Amino acid sequence: MTPTTPDESGTGPGAGADRGISRKTLLRAAVAAGAAVPLLATGAVALARDARSEGRSLTPTPFCDDGDDPTPDQIEGPYFKPNSPLRTNLVTPGTAGTRLTVSGYVFGRNCVPLPGVLLDFWQADNAGAYDMAGYTFRGHQFTDTTGAFTLQTIVPGLYPGRTRHIHVKAQAPGEPVLTTQLYFPGEPRNNTDAIFDPALLMNVRDAGGGKQATFDFVLNVDGDPGTGEPTDPPTDPPGGTWAPGRSYTAGDRVTYGGAAYRCLQAHTSMAGWEPPNVPALWRRE
């Protein structure tokens, strides 16, 4: 994946005029008018799990059937690095900054949760700097069988020209990569950042000495609502040495579908993570 230049415009398309008023349209209108967006005060935006502690009843998430587009894409920016470590916790002992937990789900257009989705996160440190020599505040993970993910990190620092944000690439097995960014509500620079999109605001609340945030991705794919049980009769697997349920380490070589691949990240294979479907794990040779 080739980094793009910082001055590219990457905001995703808005909901069409013929699709009615959606939550994204309302958010954009509110921000354009300079109004504060009450993320945790209206069921039109807040996630259902965010409301449990508030004693309110909200429409169940996700909002993938209200006429909205899937999660908008944004520019990659100049600081992406491939081959990030497989980990859900980007914080190490002595890390400076306000602790932040980001959690949520990944759904398809049809509101079906998507397991095995690759999520690759990267961000600035507390001082607003990106680590280009190593992999500090960089890591990838996969959604679990319920489509859920959790990331342990810090609130990123500010740097010239941008508001606070977290970068992410999301890829369902065998599907295109969504590159986007997540934002924080109430940030003064949200109003002056040319890339900022209110549709990508996380729900954020204080939690002890840190913060908790939630965001649900909706990918432009149809989820499989099947039971997850093997087909009967089972489907014959493609020829090759790759197989699910095996532990692979970086440098291992396999064949799949008549092509050779080299392992980039240590992992235990599973159905849906075939080499051509997960370029973060396998590189074709």
Automatic annotation (TrEMBL):
Any one GO molecular-function label of the UniProt entry: oxidoreductase activity, acting on single donors with incorporation of molecular oxygen, incorporation of two atoms of oxygen
Disordered: annotated span: 1-20, 55-92, 222-248
Transmembrane segments: 26-48
Domain Chitin-binding type-3 span(s) in chain numbering: 239-285
Database matches in InterPro entries: CBM5/12 (IPR003610), CBM_sf_5/12 (IPR036573), Intradiol_dOase_C (IPR000627), Intradiol_dOase_core (IPR015889), Intradiol_RC_Dioxygenase (IPR050770), TAT_signal (IPR006311)
The keyword Ion transport is assigned to this record: no
Record has S-adenosyl-L-methionine as a keyword: no
A GO cellular-component term linked to this record: extracellular region
Superkingdom of the organism of origin: Bacteria
A Pfam family recorded for this sequence: Dioxygenase_C
Gene Ontology biological-process entries: carbohydrate metabolic process
Alphabetic keyword roster: Dioxygenase, Hydrolase, Membrane, Oxidoreductase, Transmembrane, Transmembrane helix
Entry's family note: Belongs to the intradiol ring-cleavage dioxygenase family.
Cross-referenced PANTHER family: DIOXYGENASE (PTHR33711:SF11), DIOXYGENASE, PUTATIVE (AFU_ORTHOLOGUE AFUA_2G02910)-RELATED (PTHR33711)
Protein name, entry field: Dioxygenase
